[in-house]
Structure formats: C-alpha cells, structure tokens
Amino acid sequence: MQRLMWLRTDLRTQDNTALSEAMLSGPTIALYLITPQQWQRHDDAPCKVDFWLRNLAELQRALARLNVPLLIRHCADWSDAPAQLAEVCRTHGIQAVHVNEEYGVNESLRDQQVAAYLRQQDIAWHSHLDQLFFRPGSVLTRSGGYFQVYSQFRKVCYERLHSALPACIAPLRPQAPLAIASDPIPDAVAGFTTPGASLRELWPAGEDAAQQRLQRFAEEQVSEYDRQRDFPAQPGTSQLSAYLAAGVLSPRQCLHAALSANQGEFDSGNPGAVTWINELLWREFYKHILVGYPRVSRHRAFRLETEALRWRDAPQELAAWQEGRTGLPLIDAAMRQLQATGWMHNRLRMVVAMFLTKNLLIDWREGERFFMRQLIDGDLAANNGGWQWSASTGTDAAPYFRIFNPISQSQKFDPDGHFIRHWLPELASLNKRDIHDPAALGGLFAPSGYPRPIVDLSRSRERALSAFKDLNARE
Ligand code: FAD
C-alpha cells in the first residue's frame, strides 16, 4: 500500500513531518503541482517561482537518496488539484495522502476539497502541523479568542516551549527502491521570467545551502543580532526568510540552532539569540492571525474601521516609489535593493511601507501587492502583517501618529551612508552628512540626475495625521 507525500511549501527532506509520517507508514512517492495561474493570482514573484523550481531540483536529488520518486504534474490552478491527485493515486495504487498544513484561505479550501474528493474514493488524508510550533487555535486567550497583541501571544508561546519543546524529527532512512521514475523538473514556467545570475547566486537552492546559512548565522552572528539587526549596511540578520517561506528550512531547525547558540535558553542568556527567537514568534503570530481573522487573507483591513480611510489615488507617486525615484535616498536605495535582490532589510520594509501609506497616503494594498510581486520570501501572513502594521490598520500595529521620518531613519540606521552609496551610486560622492537629504544642499549643490523629493515630509505627515483623525472622529 503506497503513500503519497504532496509537497507544497515544505521543500525539504529533513525534519519534514508529513514526509516522515508517510515514509514510516509505507512506501512513499512524492508529488508537486505546478500551478501557474494560481501563482499569478497570488502575485507570486518570478524570482520566488524560480527559487521553488531550483529547490525542487535539489529536493529531487535528496529524495532520490531516500529512494522516493518525485512526480510533477501541471495544472492551471488549484481547482484541478482534486482530479490530479486522484489520478496519481489511481495510477500508483495510493491508499493515503500526507500533507503539511498551510493556512491561507485558498490553501485551506483547496485542502478541504482535495481531502473530500479523495475520501469518496477511500483514500485517506493526513494533514500535519509542520510550518509552525503550535497549531492555530491552540494558543488562545483565556476567553478562547485569538490573541491580537503580540507580547501576550509570545508569553503563552514561551510557557508552552518551556513545558514541551517541539523536537526535530530523526533523519529518515532510505526505503526500498520503487519501480517508478521521477519526472523532470522544468527550468522555467511560462509567465514567470527567470531572474539574472546575480540574484540567483544570492539565494543558492537546497537544504544543504540553507543549513550552512543557518549554522553560520547561529555560530557567528546571532549573538550580535540585537545590536546589528537594524543596520541595513551590516549583514546583521539571517537572510533565511526565503528558505523558511519555501519550507527548505523548518522553524524547528531554526529554533534549535538558536537554542544551542544560547545554552538552551529562550528568554534569557544571550540577548541576540532571544531577540531572534522573538522574530520566529512574530512569524508564528501572523500565521495564527491569518487563521483567526481570515479577512486579512482576503485583503481586508484587520481593523475594519480603517477601511473608511480616504487613500489617495496617485499613480505617478506610486510609480516613483516602486521604481526608487522618490528623491529620498533611503527609500530609493531600499526599493532598488528589492528589485535587484528580491529581498529587503526588515527596517527598510517598515520605512518604505510607512512612507507609502502615510507620507503618500496610498492604500497599503498597493504596497502589499507590489512587494509580493517582487519578494523571493513573499509570504501572505508576514507580508500582510508587516503592511498592516506599517499602515496602522493591523493587529498590534504601529499607532497612526508614530510616523517614521525617512531622513532621520536614514541618519540613525545608515549613519555613514554606506547602504545608500551601494544602491545609489549617483550619490556616492556625497559626504555622510549630506547623503541622507541631498535636496537640503539647494539648487546648484544638489547632485544632478537625482530627483527632488516627490513630497514634503512635514506637510504630508500632517495630511496623514488628519486623515486618521477624521477616521477616529467618525467612529
Ligand atoms: P531575521 O531578522 O533573521 O529573522 C528570522 C526569521 O524570522 C525571518 O527569516 C522570518 O521568517 C521571521 N521574521 C522576522 N521578522 C518578521 C516579522 N516582522 N514578521 C514575520 N516574520 C518575521 N517576511 C517574510 O518572510 N515574507 C514577507 O513577505 C514579508 N513581508 C514584509 C513586509 C513588510 C511591510 C514588513 C514590515 C515586514 C515583512 N516581512 C516579511 C518580515 C521581515 O521583514 C522579514 O521576515 C525579514 O526581513 C527577513 O529577513 P531575515 O531572514 O534576515 O530575518
């Protein structure tokens, strides 16, 4: 009786709950569905799709070492998933399908439909907790609701982690070879352009590459994380988000690496490791929010009253922001980092998101969508959470009157201008005082070829404050 492991955002062999459960219960084959129209509807970035394909190729080799063949099926979107899975099950005499849980509304609906369809044909469906430490719905307030405040959520998570630490799964042993050939992995999928070699080199595929990055970070950097993580010119953060989002790495592997760098402590000891574990819990928090408040999966504001906000329709300003031509160096440098690498430093994600939603008063959904179309680590829960935090429309969000000033953020977090000079060579000759605000140099002295700011920071700040105050007045 064969088992099917349906791979999605869990592209690894180590510490993979569903793969392990499938292999422990019988001979297993793996399946991946290529669904370009679904990916387009979800705004998945071409560099992310390319990262999935490159990881699939590595995964196929790792699975081959376990004698698990990897089948590839192509369909337009998830509406075809029930029929595709049923056909694979029929062809290979599969009795049970194993998956790791995913939490967006479309993902949940897809799984319900596939499970129901397979059950009609007497094929069992086993869904496992794997992406998170705790199953959504199991970390609740005393009155049984989902937490809306991160610090309260984190406190309960710590209590749970102290009493039962989620363990990594023991390495799998190869199964007896099956007479089933693996399918070729495509190099590209129509509709998604292949990124250039320089972007690909930044994000090498495969579990070994991910593990090396994790080990290096845990051994050499995590102890400095609390001091370095806000400075985009420093390699102060792990740059593991793409691997976590695609499931090339599990959160348990990350947690255990941080714990072993911190003598087994979560909430005491080295402040760098503790701060980093807190970030893993932010990731957890936003996925729980996705399940507890499914409206955020449908692009609705978490704080419904903010849906009445009068966002501006300003396509030229939106384009200037997207293309890194706002005339504010830190914003432009950050947007160019995003275009060139598929990734942006967390501090800068907050700064550019606040600038778009507050100074330009453009709807956060525009920013959310644009980020998703660019990011190699694009993840609905974290991206939506980050955008709604920055726009003050979300759970435990930044208060609307705390608006980052991109010039003072630049002075504080890129004090020598190294990050700006790297991404904006046209400003490279400016000294570390002038580089944050070249417009202040005045007409003749301002660098040629660099735009003037598209917006007055203090007037636009007032405009945002009054838009949010109007909202409060209407409540
Ligand atoms: P590290 O600082 O090393 O953190 C370790 C891991 O913790 C990350 O890899 C990530 O998985 C998780 N993490 C860290 N910070 C957060 C956070 N604030 N929320 C949720 N998880 C977090 N993260 C994504 O993974 N995908 C996204 O699409 C995404 N979009 C964002 C959009 C905005 C507007 C903002 C403000 C933040 C967004 N983040 C997103 C969160 C954060 O910016 C990235 O996770 C982080 O920059 C990734 O870099 P790193 O791996 O070096 O992180």
Can you tag this structure with a few keywords?
single chain, alpha/beta, Serine Threonine Protein Phosphatase 5, Tetratricopeptide repeat, DNA Cyclobutane Dipyrimidine Photolyase, subunit A, domain 3, 3 domains, 20 helices, 5 strands, 48% helix
- The count of DSSP E runs of length 2 or more, i.e. the number of strands, is 5
What overall geometry do the principal axes of the alpha carbons give? globular
- The whole-number mean of residue pLDDT values reads 96
Which CATH-level-2 architecture of the largest domain? Answer: Orthogonal Bundle
Q: Which strands sit side by side, in order, in the main sheet?
A: 3-2-1-4-5
- Name the assembly state: single chain
- Please mark out the parts with pLDDT under 50 across 5 or more consecutive residues, or reply none: none
- What is the SS-derived class? alpha/beta
Bound molecules: flavin-adenine dinucleotide
Radius of gyration: 23 Å
Portion in beta strands: 5-15%
Per CATH, what is the topology of the largest domain?
Answer: DNA Cyclobutane Dipyrimidine Photolyase, subunit A, domain 3
- Largest sheet geometry: 5 strands, parallel
Cofactor: (6R)-5,10-methylene-5,6,7,8-tetrahydrofolate; FAD
Pfam families: DNA_photolyase, FAD_binding_7
Family: Belongs to the DNA photolyase family.
Keywords: Chromophore, FAD, Flavoprotein, Lyase
